[in-house]
TrEMBL record:
<dbReference type="Pfam" id="PF25782">
    <property type="entry name" value="TPR_CAND1"/>
</dbReference>
<dbReference type="GO" id="GO:0010265">
    <property type="term" value="P:SCF complex assembly"/>
</dbReference>
<comment type="similarity">
    <text>Belongs to the CAND family.</text>
</comment>
<dbReference type="InterPro" id="IPR011989">
    <property type="entry name" value="ARM-like"/>
</dbReference>
<protein>
    <submittedName>
        <fullName>Cullin-associated NEDD8-dissociated protein 1</fullName>
    </submittedName>
</protein>
<dbReference type="Pfam" id="PF08623">
    <property type="entry name" value="TIP120"/>
</dbReference>
<dbReference type="InterPro" id="IPR039852">
    <property type="entry name" value="CAND1/CAND2"/>
</dbReference>
<dbReference type="InterPro" id="IPR013932">
    <property type="entry name" value="TATA-bd_TIP120"/>
</dbReference>
<keyword id="KW-0833">Ubl conjugation pathway</keyword>
<keyword id="KW-0677">Repeat</keyword>
<dbReference type="InterPro" id="IPR016024">
    <property type="entry name" value="ARM-type_fold"/>
</dbReference>
<feature type="domain" description="TATA-binding protein interacting (TIP20)">
    <location>
        <begin position="1031"/>
        <end position="1194"/>
    </location>
</feature>
Amino acid sequence: LSQMTSSDKDFRFMATNDLMSELQKDNIKLDDDSERKVVKMLLKLLEDKNGEVQNLAVKCLGPLVNKVKEYQVETIVDALCSNMVSDKEQLRDISSIGLKTVISELPLGSSALVANVCKRITGRLSSAIEKQEDVSVQLEALDIVADLLSRFGALLITFHSIILAALLPQLSSPRQAVRKRTIVALSHLLTSSNNYLYNKLLDHLLEGLCTQTAKNVIRTYIQCIASICRQAGHRFGEQIERVMPLIVQYSNEDDDELREYCLQAFESFVYRCPKEITPHINKIIEICLVYITYDPNYNYDDDMNDVSDGEDVMMEVEEDGEEDAEDEYSDDDDMSWKVRRAAAKCLEAVVSSRRELLPELYKVVSPALISRFKEREENVKSDIFHAYIALLRQTRPATGVPLDPDAMEDDDGPTSLLQQQVPLIVKAVHRQMKEKSIKTRQDCFSLLKELVLVLPGALSNHIPALIPGIQYSLGDKNSSSNMKIDTLAFVHTLLITHQPEAFHAHMAVLAPPIIAAVGDPFYKITAEALLVLQQLVQVIRPHDKPCYFDFATLSGEIYRCTLMRLRTADIDQEVKERAIACMGQILAHFGDTLSDELHVCLPIFLDRLRNEITRLTTVKALTCIASSPLRVDLNQIMEEAIPILGSFLRKNQRALKLCSLPLLDTLVRNYSTTLHADLLDKVTTELPALLNETDLHIAQLTLNLLTTIAKLHSVALTRVSDNILPEILVLVKSPLLQGVALNSMLEFFQALVQADIPGLGYRELLSMLLFPVSQSVLHKQAYHSLAKCAAALTITWHQEAQAVVEQFLKDVQNPQSDAQHIFALLVIGEIGRHVDLSGITSLKHTILNSFSSHSEEVKSAASYTLGNIAVGNLPEYLPFILKEIEAQPKRQYLLLHSLKEIITCQSASPSGVSHLQNFVPSIWMLLYRHCECTEEGTRNVVAECLGKLTLIDPATLLPRLQESLKSSSALMRTTTVTAVKFTISDQPQQIDAMLKQCMGNFLVALEDPDLNVRRVALVAFNSAAHNKPMLIRDLLDSVLPHLYTETKIKKELIREVEMGPFKHTVDDGLDLRKAAFECMYTLLDSCLDRLDVFKFLNHVENGLRDHYDIKMLTYLMTARLAQLCPTAVLQRLERLVEPLKSTCTMKVKANSVKQEYEKQDELKRSALRAVAALLTIPDADKNPSLSEFVTQIKSTPELQPLFEIIQKDCTGSSVNEINVMDQS
């Protein structure tokens, strides 16, 4: 401190520097006295004669503010403010920088301090703004106020009106800079101000627009309106009707800047007030289309189009060097390009926020944009391209749900409209692809890339037109490295999305530049080129089609340029990997013509296998070669490669195991003659460890490999019973084993029993499988798996089947235990499914007797078995089952399950369907008799059977279902609607087209007087929205009102039940509302573009105040909505925050049970998740009610830690995953 007063400026400089570094340390503590001294000193240094010392002193202020007591901060601020108004220019500058530093360093947490400081600054500066003659002071003051408002707007509420009064007159100031900064400050002010001020300002602006005459003032007002809309758009909606006519009127005036501002205002309206602007959209489009071609000072030559493809014109221009002249003429005051640019941006806004207008946009906007690709001003051209790219992006089907083919192929569906315009696009782009400007060419390629992603194959007939452009941009003279990378990326997309034949004629021109790019010195270009080459190889000689195209000349060149890259060891990792992958493709497609070269490149593959960094890529490339139909000769590396691959199975890298197992499988399958048992031992010793339930995918691949070895090389499995079989028998008992892994297990047992390995015949294997059952009690799933394996063995030995089944029947007749009983039944069922067991006469009665067992498990096993043996011989067993269903009302449920088993099993294969066909009428009649059964369980089984039968013969059965909807019995209607739910699956079925036509009739059930019918109708609707949105998309207009009615709480459904001394309220409508909200949630994902978000939000708001389950659902919805349509949610924030707040502040009654507390915690957690999601909306934190609530959360001890964890989870990519409801 003493040195700071020294007369030598260097001493002062160093001392300040030391102070700075001291202040930046975290642990520095100043006592009051030293604080005072430091502050005083710094303020003095701010007036230092030496500029550098001043600068440092300003920098010190930042860290200082956080370290000293509050009143010291106020001293600093006061001093700075009075300096602001001083006469010395330099002092003013320095102190304004100082104030900015202080403002940006003020801690967001301690609001008392901030409020004090802000009040001081604001008071001083507002007066400075109002009465200053000196413009620079005004500018600085405005800047600082804008900073303050954007950070602490909400704390300055008391000052808002003073600030407003100071700012308004500045809008009509003669200096443009003042006006601009005033606008910024005002728009920050309005984000946090109250409604009274908001309206006051807007009234001022609108009045001004009506009465003002000065052009520059009008411009400023319009800019201000646009800026307010951008910053505080959620409130702007109400004003649209007042503002629009004025701005439309001004946009017709002859003043370019004014027009530009009007168009910018439109753009912000479109983005910020999607709902209120809807009636004006067409007007806006019309104005934009006029101005996008607005170019008064330049005459585009219309006869240019007659010259063949514009190529001669290109020549002329290049020869005469006219290009430069063209740009020079343009007077600097030609502002018309700004208008065109604003128009293009505004169109882009319309396109990207209005999916529902697509067909319209394609008819009107698309041709206009295409015709403007010839724009002369590069920046404008770029914006026009971007608007068109936005249009293409909107056309791409959303969220991977393929839209129904019908809607897309209408004559005026967006896709077909686009299809008709492809030639126009190509023609317009073709001319631009030869432009000198790199930016333009990059835009061309990104446009074409979007085009082929939306319409794969669109350019098949236009490839000759594109090739010159591609060559031009890959040439060295006229492109940057980024340009080359973009071009290559486009070629890659082009090759993927088109048929190989389209390119064959052009290979001679297309391939050389790509081959040249592989040799490019810049690694990024090389990597991109190798990716293209990989695709190119598959196009030159596809495996699945005969090839009439002479590829021999190219294959050599392609091979050589890739080999160059494959050999070099010191290149970039990405290039290494892609060179390996590319060589893999080359050998897989041209291996036969390159057989002399194999001794060169296969050893390189071995090296790459041994290298830890490249081994995974190499395994993938080798798989590609080994599975090629050309049977490339791999003998020279087999001996070394197989042990290496075996060792990979021990490694801890899962991806490596997942790739090595299929490669080994392929090698054994395609090259079994070159392998011998000793070599395979290196692999089989590693396998037991992989047969483990912890990773079923790897276990499944291991079983596949074992199956292949058992079929082709059973010698290698002689020692299988020592180490591999014990592991397999452990795995069979795993409750997790099912699906694909279980099927692999069955295939393995079948291959093993046929391999004739000594000591592993049919009987030995069977007894191994039966042994665990008698030993201990297993998991339910284990019995199923073991039974399936036993049956798999038996099916391969038909002659044994009868004897084995009779053996098991004895177990069924007098079982030792339930477990044995169940197992015996299951084995009989599994065998009976594939072998006709009708020879055993006592069979069906023995199984029926098990129906009367006291154990539920045995009963269900018996019904499963009965269904399965019926599959083995339908004519014998099906009539018997149908008869029993009639005769045995008590066993109905179980017998119906048997029937369901039959239907499910038969509909899986075409042959099964044809067998079942004759029985369909009799089954249908029978089911109909049981539709009105009072037991819900039975009804559901009946419905499932009906649904699955309908899938077999939709043409006759679907109309019958429609008929039964008219039945007078509510139970009948419930069953019918549930049956419809079972006809909707996530795979495409032939019934879909018919369902689409009659879905409307089934959804009439949403208006049914009966509660249950309405509930199942909602469930069916949800299933349709989830699995096949196209069934319901067009019905939403009529369905949504009914859906929304179901979300309301209905008083008449709430009743009081007396339980002894207590009264208990039961709400019968709860399940209905829950189903309705679930549907709403599903619609968000599948049909967002058909919803009116604001109506939707009304019902979400009500749900936020409903019962526990429904609150949970609506919290998820709120979070999802915040992601999908942030602008709409912003407009409604106040109304969403209220109920969230009440949940978070709710207290549980003191004497509640533990569940109540847990429920309450879960609710709070979900509510906080929703709040965190709302905070991710841009500008949401400026909303007064939300920010106040967040402050409240942060100051509540029990909520604060929770909220912090949730916010950590929310940032990053996981926002999407958290809010996705599990819909299984």
